[in-house]
Design goal:
Order of helices and strands: EEEEEEEEEEE
Structural class: mainly beta
Length: 122
């Protein structure tokens, strides 16, 4: 029943901005690490940004300085703000989280969203 749902994708012009949202739901005990991945057609899925358990955020070199990952623990939400977008940022973006359920609070599992399309084109 636990799931992640992304939203906020769309078509934007180069240099534009977009905000992606990820909502976690279900019998969640805790959410530790969260992150965003993306996959372009014919390319391998790559890690874009993540927040590890300590709260430290990390970014891939390709998006560092342009993207910002954040989370709202009370709302069980994860966000990715994409700035200064480039055509090469075009991909399906996936939300990821490590979640412990109420039934198994000491066991952490990986969860993925369904993906949201981001297209950067003029």
């Amino acid at each position: 029943q636990e799931k992640l749902v992304e939203s906020g994708g769309g078509l934007v012009q180069p240099g534009g901005s977009l905000r992606l949202s990820c909502s976690a739901s279900g019998s969640i005990f805790s959410i530790s690490a969260v992150g965003w991945y993306r996959q372009a057609p014919g390319k391998q899925r790559e890690l874009v940004a993540q927040i590890i358990g300590s709260g430290t955020a990390y970014y891939s070199d390709s998006v560092k300085g342009r993207f910002t990952i954040s989370r709202d623990n009370a709302k069980k939400m994860v966000y990715l703000h994409l700035n200064s977008l480039k055509p090469e940022d075009t991909a399906v973006y996936y939300c990821y989280a490590k979640i412990a359920t109420i039934s198994s609070p000491l066991s952490v599992n990986d969860y993925w969203g369904q993906g949201t399309q981001v297209t950067v084109s003029s």
